[in-house]
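> example.struct
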C-alpha cells in the first residue's frame, strides 16, 4: 500500500545521521539549546511530510478530496523580552 522509499531512492527507515561536534568548553545549556532547536526543526519537517503524504493518499482514495491550500505555521510563537534597567 505504501511505498518503501521516502524520497526518490532513499529507503524508508534508513535516515541519515548527523554528527555534531561540540568544543569541550561549550556550556551544557548552549549544547542543549542547539540540539533542541535541531530536533524541533526535524519534527516540523517530519510533520509536514506526514501531512503531505496523508493528503496525497486521501486524494488517491477519494478523487473528490482536495487538500487544503493552507500554509501551516507554528501554533505558538515565542517572544523574548529582556528588562531594561533605566537609571533616573
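> example.seq
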Amino acid at each position: 500500500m505504501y511505498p518503501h522509499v521516502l524520497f526518490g531512492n532513499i529507503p524508508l527507515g534508513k535516515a541519515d545521521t548527523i554528527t555534531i561536534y561540540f568544543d569541550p568548553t561549550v556550556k551544557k545549556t548552549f549544547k542543549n539549546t542547539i540540539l533542541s532547536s535541531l530536533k524541533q526543526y526535524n519534527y516540523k519537517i517530519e510533520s509536514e511530510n506526514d501531512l503531505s503524504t496523508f493528503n496525497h493518499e486521501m486524494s488517491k482514495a477519494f478523487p473528490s478530496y482536495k487538500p487544503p491550500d493552507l500554509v501551516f505555521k507554528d501554533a505558538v510563537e515565542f517572544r523574548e523580552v529582556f528588562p531594561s534597567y533605566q537609571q533616573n
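> remarks
The two ends are 71 Å apart (CA to CA).
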